[in-house]
Amino acid sequence: MTRNPANKTGTKQQLLQELVCLKADLDREREEKNHFQLERDSMLVLKGVLEKKLQEAEVKLSSICKEREEAEERHQVEISVYKQKLKQVLSRQQSSTASTCKPVQNQNLPVQETLALNHQVELMEQSNRYSRKLRDVEVKFDLKMRTLVEEQERRRAAALRQLKQQTRSYVASLKEEHSRALRGEEELRSVAQEELRELKEELQEAQQLNKELSAAQEKNRGLEEALEEARKRLQDLRRAEEEAADLRSSLKEAQEELGGLREENRLLLRGFCKVQQERDELLRRQEHSMADLQRRSALKEELLHRKLRALNRFLERKEAQLLVALSPPAGDPAESGTGEELKEDSEVQGQQVLD
């Protein structure tokens, strides 16, 4: 079973176009893979920056909390110092008042009591004012610290939400691109398997052509044997002709002695002429048939040789293009081993076709 040259040419062009398309798809997939790797690296860098900022915010928040604790401690120390100073001032005032009023204590006892009461009232009012101021300062400080802590918490929560959202979107995009790359790889593998199947069919057809060529060569050998046999028969006929010529000469010499055998001689000559004509006709037919057989055998053999050479060149180009299209990226040992096995199988089958 053979194909037309036009069909072979069309099939070869289609295969070349498909191989070019496959190569373009492979380059596009590699470019997309590199693009997604760059995006992944940029996302990782962004993630590192956000984590660093988050750590800095946590450190800043811890420092603010520490400063708040230290400020509260200083505030408590200042309050205790202020209370101690207030006690000292009160004790000094009491002692000075007692020492001043002691000589006239008996004379100005009512005045002293009134002054003491007034002084106590003033001290109490002053103490109340200082207490209110301290409470106001504490309230303002607590409000300010609470506001700072809430602001830091809001910033930290917003940064965490943004980081989580970016991580989710990045993981989703990676999954989508990974699935798309897997689908593209499966499509390329199916197309390559289809091309390999077609190449196997072409190799089977080439083997069939080789078998037909072997049969034609066997038939040619049979024709050569028939030609040799015809040549032998021609030699036999020539020897018979020579013998007949000798017989004619001997008959002519024996005409005087064998006059009675002239009629028989004429009959023999007539039969011999008829046989000679049949022989000549047979020789002409044999020569014509041999020439026709040789011409057709030569044409068929030349046609088969041309087809075989064209098929060998086509298979070699096809094998080279297939090996180029199926060559894996650097650093992938599994696909590289598969490509080497395909190359060895293609070389073995191509050698079988050439044999």
Automatic annotation (TrEMBL):
Region (Disordered): 324-355
Keyword set includes Coiled coil: yes
Xref: InterPro entries: GAS8 (IPR039308), GAS8_dom (IPR025593)
Entry GO terms, CC: Golgi apparatus; microtubule; motile cilium
Subcellular compartments: Cell projection, Cilium, Flagellum; Cytoplasm, Cytoskeleton
Pfam families documented for this protein: GAS
Gene Ontology annotations of biological process type: flagellated sperm motility
Chain coiled-coil ranges: 12-74, 149-271
Keywords: Cell projection, Cilium, Coiled coil, Cytoplasm, Cytoskeleton, Flagellum, Microtubule
Superkingdom of source: Eukaryota
GO MF annotations, alphabetized: microtubule binding; small GTPase binding
PANTHER family (UniProt xref): DYNEIN REGULATORY COMPLEX SUBUNIT 4
Family from the record: Belongs to the DRC4 family.
Name of this chain's protein: Dynein regulatory complex subunit 4
Originating species: Oryzias melastigma
